[in-house]
Design goal:
The protein is of the alpha/beta class. It has one domain: 3-Layer(aba) Sandwich (Glutaredoxin), CATH 3.40.30. Helices cover 39% and strands 20% of the residues. The chain contains 6 helices and 7 strands. It has a 5-stranded mixed β-sheet with strand order 5-4-3-6-7, with helices on one face. The chain has a two-stranded antiparallel ribbon with strand order 1-2. The protein starts with 6 loop residues before the first helix and ends with a helix.
Length: 171
């Protein structure tokens, strides 16, 4: 199965990124104090996930189903979950879909396709997560420590790098 990004999806993502860039440059109506606080998202399974997570670091990968480069990034995130579980690391994981037009069913199918169905996934409604952590590009992974600080940022790091950076952040 191949996922391709449609023109409509590309325009939607561009719009989300434009809104996010307004918040980053201070030209929007976002409150600076809010940008440093926690953000809570609803995972597709209904679970409420707060970033930062209580007492543990979190690896967050930003993707879109239509992003070909994102396939490996989500796959590596899924592998990192397995490695962390095997090693007894206390860490959280979240895959964040940046395209609010993608359906839950499409995202769940994508997560299964790349072998990461065990990773919590959420849709970044209103670009709350990407704005909070200043993420403006698909295929970005960040590690957020228990205090809400980004300690690592990269494009498509492998599973070993993700787990090593989680360990540095306190996992």
């Amino acid at each position: 199965m191949t996922y391709r990004i449609s023109r409509r999806t590309a325009i939607s993502i561009a719009g989300v990124l434009a809104v996010g860039s307004l918040g980053l440059t201070g030209c929007g109506s976002s409150d600076a104090a809010e940008s440093d606080g926690p953000v809570t998202v609803a995972a597709l399974d209904g679970q409420q996930i707060s970033l930062p997570a209580a007492g543990k670091p979190t690896a967050v990968f930003f993707f879109s189903v239509g992003c070909g480069e994102c396939v490996n990034g989500v796959r590596f995130l899924g592998e990192a979950v397995t490695i962390a579980d095997e090693n007894g690391n206390e860490a959280s994981f979240l895959a964040v879909d940046m395209d609010p037009r993608e359906s839950e069913e499409t995202i769940e199918g994508f997560m299964e396709y790349v072998g990461a169905e065990h990773v919590p996934a959420a849709i970044d409604e209103g670009a709350a997560v990407s704005q909070r952590f200043k993420v403006a590009a698909l295929s970005t992974l960040i590690v957020v420590d228990a205090d809400g600080q980004v300690t690592f940022r990269a494009t498509d790091p492998d599973a070993e790098t993700i787990t090593a950076e989680l360990a540095k952040a306190g996992a």
